[in-house]
Amino acid sequence: KLNVGVDAIQHGVEGLTYLLTESSKLMISEIDFQDSIHVLGFSDELNKLLLQLYLDNRKEIRSILAELAPKLPSYHSLEWRLDVQLASRSLRQQIKPAVTIKLHLNQNEEQTAQVLQTDPSTLLHLIQQLEQALGEMKTNHCRRIVRNMK
Q1: COMM domain location, by residue (predicted)?
Q2: What whole-number distance in Å separates Cα of residue 114 and Cα of residue 139?
Q3: I want to staple 46 with a disulfide (CB 3.0 to 4.6 A). Which of 7, 42, 63, 67 is the partner?
């Protein structure tokens, strides 16, 4: 009926879906949305219709996106133990330390536990990497990204 190819319609629907989902994710204001679609070169009437479509459906789109988001496990508690092997039959004097960690997680109203074991040097390296990552989160660049994600 439209005398337009199937591919053109499919790309149009995908583009409109992408525009509405990304705008809803970022909860952009009316002015920002209008600036975003003004670049596309549509008529003023079509721009107003797209803005009204966005304003009418952004809460519903956000709720659907929240339902589709993966439910990642969250931290509940941590138990740890330091084991040291002082000797064996073949080696009378040896020191072989090992750190055992039991990580309790909550996922979908259920508690699960993961048991991890490592040597102290690897654990120290892991701690340094995590501290470095936390330090990165304090930079202006990361703060700007996190602010835009909310």
Answers
A1: 74-141
A2: 32
A3: 42
| CA atoms of 144 and 122, how far apart (whole Å) | 32
Average pLDDT of the residues in 128-139? 92
Query: CA angle, corner 29, sides to 28 and 34, nearest 5?
Result: 100
Confidence (pLDDT) at 141: 85
35-52 pLDDT, tens per residue? Answer: 888 888 888 898 899 999
- What is the pLDDT of the chain when averaged over all its residues? 88
Q: CB of 120 within 8 A of CB of 97? A: yes
SS (H, E, C) the chain: CCCCCHHHHHHHHHHHHHHHHHHHHHCCCHHHHHHHHHCCCCCHHHHHHHHHHHHHHHHHHHHHHHHHCCCCCEEEEEEEEEEEECCCCCCCCCCEEEEEEEEEEEECCEEEEEEEEECHHHHHHHHHHHHHHHHHHCCHHHHHHHHHHC
